[in-house]
Amino acid sequence: MEKKLKNEVGWKNWMVLAVFLLLTIFFSAGWIPRIVGDYSAGILEDGILDSNNFIVRADEFVESFREEGFLPLEISALILPTQNKQIGEADLLLQEQLHQKLEDEFTDCGFISLRNFPNPKLSEDELDTSAYLSDEILYQINSQSWQQQEWFRELSEKFGPKGLLFGEDQSFIRMLMVFPDGYNENAMRNRLANFLEKREVPWYWWLIKSDIEPREEYSGIKVVDWTIGRALMSSMLNSNTIRMMAMGLFLTWFFCWKTLRSPRQASIITSMLLAEFIWIKGAIGWMFFVHTKTGLFSFWGHPLRETVFILLVYAFVIIGGISFTSRYMEAFNESRSKGVGLKAAFRRAYEILLVKFVVVVVIGLSNFLSLYQIGTRAIMEVGMLCSIAMLQIVFLALVVQKAFYLFLEKVLGPERIKHGTSEKALAIYSWCKKQANKIFLGWLVEVFATILIEEKWNRWLDSIVKFSYYSITEKSSYRFLGWITPLTPARSIAVVSVFLSLFLFVCLAQYLAFVAPEKYSNIGRIQFDEKPIGYMSRGNFIQGTEIVNALDTGTAQARAPFLVLPRDASQPLPELSDPDYWKEMKMQVKRNSPQDEEEGWQEVGDPHFLARAEEFQGVVKGVYGVRQVWSAIDGLQDYSRELYGSSLPQTREEAHDAFESFRNKLEESQNGWMVVDASWFKRGIALSIFVPADSANQMKDMTDDILRISREQFLDLVIAPFGQLHIYAQTAHITSIGKAENIFTSFFWVYGIVVIWIGFCFLIQKNKKLAIFKLSPWRAGFAVAVPFVFAFSITGIVMWIFKIPMDQASACATAFGVNAAIDFNIYFIDDYRVSLTKGALPEKALKTALLENGRPMIVDCLLNAVCFLPLAFSSFVPISRLGLTLSGMMILCGFGAMVLMPAMLRLCIIMNKNWSGFIGVSKPAYMKL
Predict the structure, then answer these.
(1) What is the Cα 498 distance to its own chain's centre?
(2) 274-320: pLDDT as tens digits
(3) Omega before 486 cis (within 30°)?
(4) d(CA 102, CA 545)
(5) Bridge partner residues of 911 (DSSP)
(6) 718 contact partners, CB below 8 Å, separation of at least 6
(7) What is the pTM of this model?
(8) CA-to-CA distance for 560 and 582, rounded, in angstroms?
(9) Count of alpha carbons within 13 Å of 460, Cβ hemisphere only?
(10) What is the pLDDT of residues 113-170, one digit of tens each?
(11) 115: closest CA among 139, 98, 131?
């Protein structure tokens, strides 16, 4: 039996199955973190693609001061909401308990809270730097002798903790966590969840878990700041990915079963897609592993990692996988229906589809790889991974599917494709419709029956195909269609031109709103912005954010840091556009005089610099979007007022003593040196600007305003933004700018590849004299672009009407739309071209392409639209909007490919030069406008 099975399946197919199994095992190993390392990344990992970006260079400028003692560390926060907006005894006791346990658990982190933040005051002519929540205060609380109002009055009069460690309206107490160098934000999220939930959360729970849910005495604690918020967003995307994959695979199986009428073929296709999920995820892991060992697979200086937009890649796996695998099985079934043998049918399907697949792959690769133009690493990775996935899918569709089918054919027996619906199913349908009609829901039963009952499904598909053909060739009896049908080339061009004109009007409105917002802000309805808080579903992070971002708290949840250094104002200030701006600014950082350097003074202790930094800090508070500005100067002011009776130190000696007192107190606590080195060093101080971080544009505008103010009013200071929050805002801005260029490039690639393909097909065509007419490559290229122009124009108009924003997720819409819908156009154009090469007249070729081969196009269109729909159920708002947008775009592209493009093909016909002098053959009337 084994020998017979081996002979019938064939040794080549056995080799294919063996290779497939080995590759699946290999890529599965790429999932295991201990083999390849932790290759998952946070939402902002290497967010900026262009290493010459101004903000990236600023970050590098700040990093260069590490060797001099500055640590540009990331800081997150926990808040303890208070009862009735009043800091009470229970709140402070919980603060003390939380601080102690966090220090015990997170030995690699530094902490700042009322428990260790120094409260400088003179006591019997000696400086007392006990914390605001000192052992003495805790004793008073426990002994019921604590003077609450007096304590809070003293707390609110000091500059250091105000707004930083508590809300000015007493609605919360805040505790800051300083993360160590090289920390992994996803791993830190997991550790924090384990601590607050008082349990070990298994790693696999994070496949579906998307929030931290504190328990017992920690139940009221909220996690804020985007350092952990980004990691929570990543976990939310991971849980969405699992859910969307499951929904997508189920829809794939169901509709492939309906289309191919074969549960076995539907199962094979679904298996191929599941294998591709394993392959592409494993490929990411192995590329990261190879990079860590050899430095290879470096993309713009960084390894390719699994980031937040991996969900889009998995969506493409389903969309692209269906297009290739189902088409191959359809071609196989068509050959089998004509009596062709099993292996011969596969060989014929391969020959028919190979060239078409190559064209689709080339167009898809050109569109996905061109996503680098947008300028952000996350979008570039989507394009790179989709390109890799596309090549893997083609191999699975053309090679593995055949071997898998033959294997099942011999193991399970010949496939039996059942046509028609059983009488029992029809009886159930009739009964359900009769009952539903009683409550006026018969139409709903009819909808489900159309999908489930084969006869209705086929009639529905055939009616769509016939509608497409007759709308081009005959006048419609419907009043609203009669004035435009039959759809001549001129009318088709007019329809597209109308929507294109409206879209160009939208573009003009957006441009005017961009260049002159004070006059035209109302007409710029599409917002090129990221609203990160709105992306998160309501949970612990959002609840904490709403508390901290309230107007009366005097602060906000996110920290945007700047490094402030003294500058030699005698040197000319470089322009911001200068590519060497930060290199020149590094040379202009003011240094001590040789005498001061010899005496051990530090630049940060210069009273003039401290006064100017304080003045700058005060000006920045007035910038739109800024809620609070904090730096070590605030703590220094408390020391100076107590010790010297002045708002700031007046001499280097006073500044030195104040800084050292501040440092010594903080360094008494665990990892206090991290807090100090992240706040100031010998050359300057870190300025922490707290913002709501609910708009990427606002954050970018804030940074631009601060840089402008520094150049206009503070020429003696160097101001450098650094950290992930600035990178996030810059990423969103670059995405919106690079998108327009990418859209134009996408159409250029489609047009150019179609022209080359049709021209090449005619050159290699045999019996060229047989064809009376042929397609013009130059005109056909424009015809293929028509459905996309039509679909994107309407999509842009809808986005403008309903104010749908353009964000990083929707930046991929063009590439996804073109790749998913190019199948409709390519297969139709090729069917039309082949009919012409066989000598058919244009009208006959059009009828053949539409009526005989139009059904697979309709099915393809519906499959793509339906399989994009799971994205619409994502709790991540940008992905949800993308799912709805692409589903609608697929329907529009299908209409363009079935109606508008065929009508325009009459203009793409040219006379074969071999027939140009033939008597009696002239250009038919229907080829004219």
Answers:
(1) 32
(2) 999 899 988 888 888 888 888 887 776 777 776 666 767 877 888 78
(3) yes
(4) 21
(5) 773
(6) 563, 564, 565, 566, 567, 585, 588, 589, 684
(7) 0.82
(8) 19
(9) 17
(10) 999 999 998 877 788 889 999 999 999 999 999 999 999 999 999 999 999 999 999 9
(11) 131
